[in-house]
């Protein structure tokens, strides 16, 4: 699916100003935003999800224009059909696993779901191996389970694009490797393109099809040749990008 | 010394015998304060939520006014309500002065700022990421607000309980607008004041003990709610 991002956004005031100018496009299934903290990766994801409004630019997902400042288009977040898995997952702490996941299916006041959606919930609980903990609160789950709740909650609404903000950073190394494989399986199963943020070269090597390298609010490079994504190769390719600090 | 001792003895007799006057006074107190709190919550919670969730103009000023209201002297509220509902006052035609209705209004004015302010604080303190999560999961602005309010519910309950504590304990406002009419507008606090004046300590002591017991219950409930809220919140987001 074609994804086009071309946005500008200034944050803050006075001396503490951060300016984001990011432009990239991809028609691959896994886009990885890579770069140091504070480079503007999360801001980009928030802009795509509609949580932040860019000052100018354009965002297109598939055949849908989500944002276009010149045409005054701004689709509200709730109608963007974009799934978002937050860093640390942002589960609703007072809602059970089942209610967290069905939150996006809920219409109106009641928690009662129509039959079809109830079946869908059961199916998703099963896919993510959460059936046994469906009545637990998030605080009683393991890190891996929390992440699966975050994923399930986003995917149950059948979004057109899945955004993940540092999905593996809260997990230990073993679980991280496992969840990478799980993410690839999910991507196939739900046939959904994925855009994720990381600063871990291992994630890049395992997942990336398009690599977008961020630094200081700018996109430094867009790479689409997976040959270059092996960790040792990546260090070589990026050393030319990130200029040595001027003293 | 003897009168105090006698007072306590008689007080226990009154309580043990479920004295009808005693029960009637307690029941009226609970009705008036309960109704006042209900009104204060029905109005204060939406106002607090609006102040917390919307970028209203004058928000800072409104919050300062509300926070000042938390410390309103009950007698000033009594005076204000009295003027409003006295025969020559603007609402005099309602003939509410010296009725439980006027007492409810006076206590509502006392409880409203507390409920509003504490609701506001509770809602403001909900992690902003919760709002974003609701939004990307398709919540419309109303559902978004309800989600945040639900996450803040323990803090909001604290506000309600604090408001109840304030109105059950105050005497100035209800005395001025209720008139302390036996069997009609006499509540626990006003009865204590009057009986003490008359030198009849038995009923005053009995009511004092019950009022203290009620305060204790309110505070125990408050602590339980806060502990309970802490136990089931937050951890996921910040651990």
Q: How is this structure best summarized?
A:
The complex is a heterodimer of chains A (247) and B (239). Chain A has 247 residues and is α/β, with parallel strands linked by helices.
Structure, explained:
The complex is a heterodimer of chains A (247) and B (239). Chain A contains seven helices and eleven strands. In chain A, β1 (3-13) and β2 form a beta hairpin. In chain A, 30% of the residues lie in helices and 27% in strands. Chain A has two domains: 3-81 and 159-239, 3-Layer(aba) Sandwich (Rossmann fold), CATH 3.40.50; 93-155, no CATH class. The model of chain A has no long low-confidence stretch (mean pLDDT 90). Chain B is an all-alpha fold. Chain B has a single domain (20-230), classed as MetI-like (MetI-like fold), CATH 1.10.3720.10. Chain B contains twelve helices and no strands. Chain B starts with a helix and ends with a helix. The relative contact order of chain B is 0.16. Classes of the chains: A alpha/beta (247), B mainly alpha (239). Chain A binds chain B through residues 46, 49-51, 77-80, 82-84, 86, 88-94, 103-104, 106, 137-139, 146, 153-154, 157, and chain B through 127, 129-130, 132-140, 143, 147, 150-151, 153, 232-237.
């Amino acid at each position: 699916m074609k994804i086009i991002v071309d946005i500008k956004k200034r944050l803050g005031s006075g001396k503490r100003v951060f300016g984001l100018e990011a432009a990239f496009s991809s028609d691959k299934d896994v886009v990885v935003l890579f770069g140091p903290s504070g480079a503007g990766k999360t801001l980009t994801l928030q802009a795509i999800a509609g949580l932040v409004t860019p000052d100018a630019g354009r965002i297109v997902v598939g055949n849908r224009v989500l944002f276009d400042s010149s045409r005054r288009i701004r689709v509200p977040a709730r109608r963007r059909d974009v799934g978002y898995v937050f860093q640390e997952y942002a589960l609703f702490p007072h809602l059970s696993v089942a209610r967290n996941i069905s939150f996006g299916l809920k219409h109106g006041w009641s928690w009662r779901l129509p039959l079809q959606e109830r079946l869908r919930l059961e199916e998703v609980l099963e896919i993510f191996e959460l059936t046994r903990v469906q009545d637990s609160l998030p605080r009683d789950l393991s890190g891996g389970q929390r992440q699966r709740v975050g994923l399930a909650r986003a995917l149950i609404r059948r979004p057109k694009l899945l955004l993940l903000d540092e999905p593996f950073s809260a997990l230990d190394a073993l679980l991280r490797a496992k969840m990478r494989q799980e993410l690839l399986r999910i991507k196939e199963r739900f046939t959904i393109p994925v855009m994720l943020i990381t600063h871990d070269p291992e994630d890049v090597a395992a997942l990336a099809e398009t690599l977008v390298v961020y630094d200081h609010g700018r996109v430094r490079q867009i790479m689409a040749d997976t040959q270059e994504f092996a960790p040792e190769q990546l260090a070589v390719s990026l050393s030319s990008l990130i200029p040595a600090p001027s003293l | 010394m003897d009168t105090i001792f006698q007072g306590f003895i008689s007080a226990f007799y009154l309580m043990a015998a479920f004295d009808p006057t005693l029960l009637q006074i307690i029941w009226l107190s609970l009705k008036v304060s309960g109704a006042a709190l209900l009104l204060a919550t029905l109005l204060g919670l939406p106002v607090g939520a609006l102040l917390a969730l919307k970028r209203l103009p004058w928000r800072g000023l409104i919050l300062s006014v509300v926070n000042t209201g938390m410390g309103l002297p009950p007698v000033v509220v009594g005076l204000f309500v009295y003027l409003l509902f006295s025969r020559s006052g603007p609402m005099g035609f309602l003939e509410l002065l010296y009725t439980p209705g006027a007492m409810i209004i006076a206590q509502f004015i006392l409880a409203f700022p507390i409920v509003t302010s504490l609701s506001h604080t509770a809602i403001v303190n909900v992690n902003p990421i919760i709002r974003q999560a609701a939004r990307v999961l398709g919540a419309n602005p109303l559902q978004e607000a309800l989600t945040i309010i639900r996450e803040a519910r323990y803090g909001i309950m604290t506000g309600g309980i604090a408001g109840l504590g304030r109105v059950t304990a105050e005497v100035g406002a209800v005395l001025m607008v209720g008139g302390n009419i036996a069997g009609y507008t006499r509540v626990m606090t006003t009865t204590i004041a009057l009986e003490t004046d008359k030198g009849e300590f038995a009923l005053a002591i009995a009511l004092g003990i019950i009022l203290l017991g009620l305060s204790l219950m309110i505070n125990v409930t408050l602590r339980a709610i806060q502990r309970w809220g802490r136990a089931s919140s937050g951890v996921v987001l910040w651990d």
